[in-house]
Each structure stands twice: as C-alpha cells, then as structure tokens.
Design goal:
The termini are far apart. It contains 9 helices and 10 strands. It has a 4-stranded antiparallel β-sheet with strand order 2-3-5-4. By secondary structure, the chain is α+β, with helices and mostly antiparallel strands. Helices cover 42% and strands 19% of the residues.
C-alpha cells in the first residue's frame, strides 16, 4: 500500500528528551507512520484510518503480538484512539487469541493544531496555534526511499530529530551526538553508525566543525524531501564522498 499523503505533521515535542517517542519506541512509531497507508479522507478527524492487524503486519513485518502491543501502547500514550474498540478483552477472540482481520477504526488524537497564514512572500503555511503545536513536516515518501536503500525504521526518528533542530535560517542541525541519543534513546555508538550510513546513502551531509576548544562536532545538513534530492547532491555530494573516504581509511587503520 502507498502512503495516502505526501507529508504529515508530527508534534515537535515528541522528540524532546523524555518525549513521546522515547516512550513509544521505533516499532510503535513505525506502526503510527504505517497507518497513513490506510487513511480515509474527508472525515471528522484529519487523520482517520481503517485497517486491521493483518494489513499493518503486511507492511511492517512485525508479529501479531508486537503489532497488538504497539497499538495498545499508542492508545495508552494518547497518540491514537479506537472508534470501534472500547475494551481490549472484547476485541480478542473467545479463546483470547488476537484477531488478525477484524477491522480497526482508528483516529490520531495527538495532532498539532494549526491555522493557515500567509508570509511576506505570499506563501500560505500552517501556523501552530500554541507552542505545544510546533510540528515537524515529515515526507512519508522519503521513508520509502530509505527502505529501498536498505535503511530500516531505526533511521526514521533520526530524520525527524534532525528535521526538528534544523528549523533555522541556515537549515542546519547543531545537536551533539549525546543530546540526540538522549532524545531518542539510542546508544551513542549506534547513533554514530546510523548517521554515517545516512551519509553513505547521500541523504545527509555531516560536516566536521571545530568548536574552538580543541574538539570537533557535527553540523548536519539533511535532505528534507524527495524533491530536494538533485539540489542536495549538487551541493554536498563531493563533501560526503570526502567523509566516506575518511571513515573508510580510519576503519582500515583500526582493522590493521
């Protein structure tokens, strides 16, 4: 199933330290994104879905129990609600097994509230109503590109976090690896590995910068949308390839 929307809005505070992403984890986040392959249009809730555990499993490759547990967790965190399930014990089969094919009517309940505004360049955009409604615009089709290049759903929150912190004039992310790891609950070494692989796949350029105190930090330039790919490669391909040569040389030296 294809995504039914090109872009969705996710609350920025999900990716704060101790935010909802750190509580839901990567599998539940994958299921939340997967729901947008089953979205219904023109409903009372902007994000309304009609699906089943069986359909979700076909897209995510998670087990029946993992899918069921993640859906319950998303409801517990107030991220989604079920219009046709009031009690989980009544959702189960009489022998207490999980029904694969029973229809689930789901709505997203933790969605940013926005209003349409026009900036000084006459561009219409969605303005957050309050500070709690600041959002990340996520390009869902870009995640299909990640998947086609062998990048699993562990990379999706890295994209979201970098996107959150590049909301500045220079469109750069200056977060330290430690702070990033704290926000999404990843081990620092594992996060470094993901960032380097994103560079190798030409969807991120991580520039080494000197902090003036004898150490270096990363300045990240993220490919935000699929439409940006040509311009992104034109701007950063040469620097990314320098990074790859540096990392490969360091790896060979370490191996020796």
């Amino acid at each position: 199933m294809n995504y039914t929307l090109k872009h969705i809005k996710i609350k920025s505070n999900w990716f704060d330290s101790g935010g909802k992403f750190s509580k839901m984890g990567i599998d539940a986040f994958l299921i939340y994104l997967t729901l947008f392959r089953f979205r219904l249009h023109n409903q009372d809730y902007e994000y309304t879905f009609l699906t089943s555990i069986s359909y979700i499993r076909k897209e995510t490759k998670l087990s029946k129990q993992e899918t069921f547990d993640c859906l319950r967790l998303l409801k517990k965190l107030g991220i989604i609600d079920f219009e046709n399930v009031t009690r989980w014990d009544r959702f189960l089969n009489t022998d207490k097994t999980i029904p694969d094919d029973r229809i689930l009517h789901i709505v997203a309940t933790d969605v940013p509230n926005t209003i349409k505004e026009t900036n000084d360049k006459n561009i219409i955009y969605d303005k957050p109503v309050t500070e709690l409604d600041y959002y990340i615009s996520v390009d869902l089709n870009l995640f299909d590109v990640y998947k086609s290049r062998g990048l699993n759903h562990s990379y999706y929150p890295v994209y979201c976090l970098l996107k959150k912190w590049q909301n500045n004039i220079e469109r750069k992310s200056f977060m330290s690896i430690q702070k990033m790891a704290d926000c999404i609950g990843y081990d620092k070494d594992y996060l470094n590995k993901l960032i380097r692989e994103m560079n190798r796949q030409y969807i991120l350029y991580s520039d080494y910068r000197n902090n003036g105190k004898g150490s270096k930090y990363f300045e990240h330039h993220l490919m935000n949308t699929l439409q940006e790919e040509t311009g992104f490669l034109r701007a950063y391909q040469e620097q990314i390839e320098k990074n790859i040569k540096k990392w490969d040389k360091k790896k060979r030296t370490k191996t020796k």
